[in-house]
Amino acid sequence: MRKICLALLVLLVSSVVAYKTVRGQNSPAVFTIPIYAQYTTNSLLRPSAVYISPTNPNYLFIADSGHNQIDVFNAGSLQILAGDGNAGNQDGTLASARFNIPTGISGWGFIQRCVGVPCTPTVNLDLIVVDAGNNAVRRICRIYSIGNPFVPPTCPATGVVTSSGGQSGYQDGTGAQARFSYPSSFGSSYTLQGQLIADLGNNALRSVDITGNTVQTVISSNTPGYLNGPLANALFRGITSMTATPDSSLLTDSGNFVVRKLDQSNNVTTFAGNGIQGYVDGPANSAEFAMPLSIKYNAADGNTYVADALNNCIRRIDPAGNVSTYAGQANGGLQDGSNSQAMFSHPTSIAISNGFMYVADENNNAIRRIDMTNNVVSTLIH
Question: Would you say 323 and 307 are in contact if contact means Cβ atoms under 8 Å apart?
Fold first, then answer.
């Protein structure tokens, strides 16, 4: 029987999914991460983003902003994946590369499936990093590679390269031609394509095509404001995150203290929040947020979760827009326990996988984990 190889490029925002096809059966490809060093104290400094590998949820990636490194946590061990710990803008090996306040992590993967007879799949997986202080999108190449997949010439070996940007400004383009102004995080959208990056300083949402390193502006609000309507006319004041739901996209408009909705027709409405900075649970039009930074839709329960940083808590929004406090207390602190007893201090990023929520608890220099079945908060790293 002749073996047929099918090459497939997969570009998923905030997700890397690798599959191997053997006799028509698909199964997740489990991978290991090349590690070059390990912390001796398991310490973090101002962690700003967390990312779970869909192919192996035992791996938790962390943007360790204060240490200017990307870390990985697995089997109780916190290890350095990339960065030498010094602030800078330097490509190179995992050990020699330098970042300057990395604030976001996502993933990109190349998959080649073999159909017809058993064969060895070929896979290439990278991590994509928002390097805020360098106004750049960086790429950690080939953290996992098997077989002989197509390897982009810009990512020839395991190490760190700059995908786009590198200077402050506001310009679309390819590679170093593109300009960002303190990009903050990745997001996903129901209607918008590419790796979506919240370009905080430009009050914009940018799309990056990782295969061609091309940057395009998909949401622009040159004049900060608060206006709903067609996307081309809508005004925002600090987009910090976006998530895809089954029928729309939700984004945190931090400067307006609300969560906005982008529907399938690219119309913008307010999904939750009354535009007043505060801390009030309740119906969509009366709820108040203080600084909504990170947002994630959870398909398992149909709710959306928001890291409300200045209220030191995680908020939950149901499909009707009703807001409640899911975990944490407004006064803040470092305390484990039930969701209502637990305390956070400036939570900045959340990731959800297999019934657990992972929280970058920035001011506590910690990663917290919420058991979403039993509603209990524990400290994973501190």
Answer: no
Report pTM: 0.88
Paired tokens of 276: 């007043």
- Nearest residue to 327 via CA among 364, 362, 361: 361
Q: Rounded distance, CA 262 to CA 145, Å?
A: 37
Residue from 151, 117, 142, 108 nearest 34 by CA: 142
What are the CA-CA distances from residue 173 to residues 178, 179, 215, 322, 329 (Å)? 5, 8, 5, 40, 44
**Same-domain pairing of 122 and 231:** no
Please check whether residue 368 lies inside any domain of the structure: yes
Domain interval for residue 289: 221-381
CA separation for the pair 290, 366 (Å, rounded): 21
Same structural domain, 283 and 153: no
Distance of CA 166 to the CA centre of its chain: 20
CATH of the domain at 95: 2.120.10.30
Residue 209 lies in a domain: no
| 161, 139 Cβ separation under 8 angstroms | yes
3-state secondary structure of 197: strand
pLDDT (tens place) for every residue of the chain, 382 residues total = 332 222 222 222 333 333 333 333 343 444 556 666 555 556 899 999 999 876 667 889 999 999 999 998 988 888 899 999 999 999 999 889 999 999 999 887 655 555 555 555 556 678 899 999 999 999 998 776 555 544 555 676 778 999 999 999 999 999 999 999 999 888 777 667 778 899 999 999 999 988 788 999 998 877 899 999 999 999 999 999 999 999 999 999 999 999 999 999 999 999 999 999 999 999 999 999 999 999 999 999 999 999 999 999 999 999 999 999 999 999 999 999 999 999 999 999 999 999 999 999 999 999 999 999 999 999 999 9
Structural tokens at position 302: 């149909």
* Same domain for 138 and 257: no
Asked if 137 contacts 183 with a C-beta cutoff of 8 angstroms, the reply is yes
